[in-house]
DNA sequence: CATCGAGGCGCG
DNA sequence: AAAGCGCGCCTCGATG
């Protein structure tokens, strides 16, 4: 494995420094290129032995993608820092004990190749500076808006262009030099902050209780960062004309001069008639609640789950209106105008954006696309979609985490919930689902709580495992996922209340609230382990899939990931590759299970569908 | 005028 | 039929 660390220290004056280092961060060589030549340098150097090390994938990778350059692996220093700094398995490391630094902050805003992060470093030598220094590469940066990048750009081989001009000759010489270097080299810039951070991280990993698992976590988190950048670059194929058609069908014509779409307006009139109030505004919750109560409904909120249980003529039109209103405001024409450009939706994925390790997204609500509009996600002509999701991922993960063989056995087939019925544990599939979800979330009331004794009897190891995670959380402790991501500690106020709970002198509502809060944190840690470990499986799955896809098709028409939703992936593929993609999806899932849990007999079946559009794939 | 929390609802 | 985990984003209405 060759590590090449990329940084743009202020001493390099807008140029980019490439360091060849070993796994401990020892420098063997370094080379400085003008920022504009950075993509050529990467293209010339990258191969299947190189792992690129950089502070933020979201900063360095998009300019490469714009040039049609793809890297195979990276080590994202900021994402890895967050994991290693808080993991219980690296708690003794200098990294964990260091004071707060810029590495603990969110990704900073930067111009495409300038580094303003560590500009307090000494500017002691002028090596690499001078007239040749250039700022900015002229390519779109990570903050380019949706639609700045269109169809997959495979316009030209960047390798070819690199092999031509002066930059190419320079890089070519560098490659030869790198290949021949066997002796550590001096660091001509003094200490580079990215380099130092890389060394701290590698040291923390090496000294960790579980270097294998934690190393895998850091690797797949970084692979996720590459995938997130690639998916944003390619975008989800989105047919604005079909979206418009869906909206018009559901809501009526788009209003031209303000006001509601006609079908919504008609419902408003119906709702007003049903409650005998000709003027109230159903979009205002206080207004609506008042109107409902005056009409004789004994509701305490306007939420749909409460309304659903009420027998009154206003309920049906009101629920219909709420659904339409949601579609109109969240994914209506305004959404379409804002987020879809040139047939693509380019959401920004936030890797590690959720405490558990799941991804978040910002801009356009990419992870909450309602079923209603999924019909607008349509493959290009000659292309199709492969949509795959992991069936009952979290319970299967739980069976492996806890080593519960009987639960793993229930997961041997396609449908774990049905298997619970077949094993005689519960009487219906629905009960199985409610019961399992209740165990994962820590339900204490209702139907799912009533199922707990049966589940405990059938799967003692699994249920004890989540119960223990909850107990740890209730005491304010830390739990850790399978690969080593640890839960955050409760904040100061939590501990203040926790004292009230254990202090024998405190009684009544105050104590009640304290206990309630402790249980709430327990439910969080209970779920953290399962949700977080499931996210790790999903990342292994997707990283493996990405590698397989890279071998398929041709550079001009290669299947590529376009969407990821916790336990579901979407690949946009030439029709001719679809079956190969389906096979890869299954193979990658099997690989992920083995990678995480070795020989433990847990299975992770995925359901993969080939379809021209997303709605059909889910239907 | 901008910002924030609450209520609500979409997704897993 | 049901209330327990994790999110982002919309509107309204209160507050600065």
UniProtKB/TrEMBL annotation:
Coiled coil segments of this chain: none
UniProt-listed Enzyme Commission number(s): 2.7.7.7
Biased composition (Gly residues): 126-148
Statement: the UniProt record of this protein carries the keyword Methyltransferase: no
Enzyme class: transferase
Catalyzed reactions per annotation: DNA(n) + a 2'-deoxyribonucleoside 5'-triphosphate = DNA(n+1) + diphosphate
Listed Low complexity bias regions: 149-165
Domain of life: Bacteria
Keyword Magnesium assigned: no
PANTHER family in UniProt: DNA POLYMERASE I, DNA POLYMERASE NU
Protein name: DNA-directed DNA polymerase
Organism (species): Klugiella xanthotipulae
